[in-house]
């Protein structure tokens, strides 16, 4: 079952669809996305093979257009935000504390995200995707909605979509035929985009992981850090410095000789079960190179990944604001709510102001990407602002709760740890 049907199941019984006039669009999505999926063999025995022959790479139709900067969501975007937002509020928020403690996402949450169609975002319709248009704005809206439940679980749910989106944007016909039907199926493989490396002041355009030509093949060596669900991943999209060319992306199957994984729990986003990926003389065929190694492909990948993290920052920061407002209004000290204190009121107002700036900067960059215009500058501004103010918002959330903010009885301490990842992590996600 495709995305519209899965999303409709999540919001079944909700009056929101009728209230915002989405009953018709919802039915159209179901009709358009009713193609049957297929169930792959188990993860342990999965073999990636081309299930269809393509005359050329399939590309989703680009969203956006026109001269006006208009962030009014479409009916389809409203529907998707409601679906993923309901899932986040009902499933992710409830499971977040235990998942953070365990350092792993619950299987039932991952299964729910598959039913909702998270892994097929960005996959062309011809290969099992459900959205006719690729849209960075839609990806940002979905990331924001999921992060409102929990950032770590949002990363775990959306990590496979990063690989599907990348191959939908830049993969050739062979790569798409081999991997995208699996990612769009009922039992999609765990997958992740691996850019970050374990060294100080990491620069995604100065990679230590190398790819050198050996005959007609490539040989990859290096280490990648904080890869979501690394122990479960069957497919990686790895960034490496291509000998004589620059940074490039390679498709790496986990069963390839020389691929190793070890646990790497982090301060935040612990529910994503992050791990370290090691590549020791990994031999790949020439067909593993994505986008022909073109520099603009890798550059756009980095920009889109940073926008995805900005979206998670916005969603988590919104969760902080939604939590602290009722708390300071209900918490009584010296005979009155603490929100009556000017310092408290100003601090809450600052969270709201900076949150709106984060949101608009992120939306603006994503909208430019959808229109096919340069968006590197706008992405850099959004990332800088989100990285700085996300940490501040997390800290203020803890501070506004006083002693309660420092204990795990309240989620703000977890949100503070998660928000610190926004300015540090590269890759993992993509819009």
Report on the structure:
The protein has 431 residues and is α+β, with helices and mostly antiparallel strands. It has twelve helices and 13 strands. It has helices at 3-10, 16-19, 23-32, 75-102, 107-116, 136-147, 151-170, 173-183, 295-330, 342-370, 376-400, 412-419, and strands at residues 61-62, 133-134, 191-194, 210-214, 217-227, 235-242, 246-253, 259-263, 275-284, 289-290, 332-333, 336-337, 427-428. Strands 3, 4, 5, 6, 7, 8, 9, 10 and 13 form a nine-stranded mixed β-sheet that branches. A hairpin with a 2-residue loop joins β4 and β5 (217-227). α4 packs antiparallel against α5, α7 packs antiparallel against α8 and α11 runs antiparallel to α12. It is globular, with a radius of gyration of 21 Å. The two termini are 23 Å apart.
Brief account:
With 431 residues, the protein is α+β, with helices and mostly antiparallel strands. The chain is built from twelve helices and 13 strands. The chain has helices spanning 3-10, 16-19, 23-32, 75-102, 107-116, 136-147, 151-170, 173-183, 295-330, 342-370, 376-400, 412-419, and strands at residues 61-62, 133-134, 191-194, 210-214, 217-227, 235-242, 246-253, 259-263, 275-284, 289-290, 332-333, 336-337, 427-428.
Characteristic key phrases:
431 residues, alpha+beta, two-stranded parallel ribbon, 12 helices, 13 strands, disordered N terminus
How would the blueprint of this fold be written?
Blueprint: H1 3-10, H2 16-19, H3 23-32, E1 61-62, H4 75-102, H5 107-116, E2 133-134, H6 136-147, H7 151-170, H8 173-183, E3 191-194, E4 210-214, E5 217-227, E6 235-242, E7 246-253, E8 259-263, E9 275-284, E10 289-290, H9 295-330, E11 332-333, E12 336-337, H10 342-370, H11 376-400, H12 412-419, E13 427-428
Parallel strand pairs: 1-2, 3-6, 4-6
Antiparallel strand pairs: 3-13, 4-5, 5-9, 6-7, 7-10, 8-9, 11-12
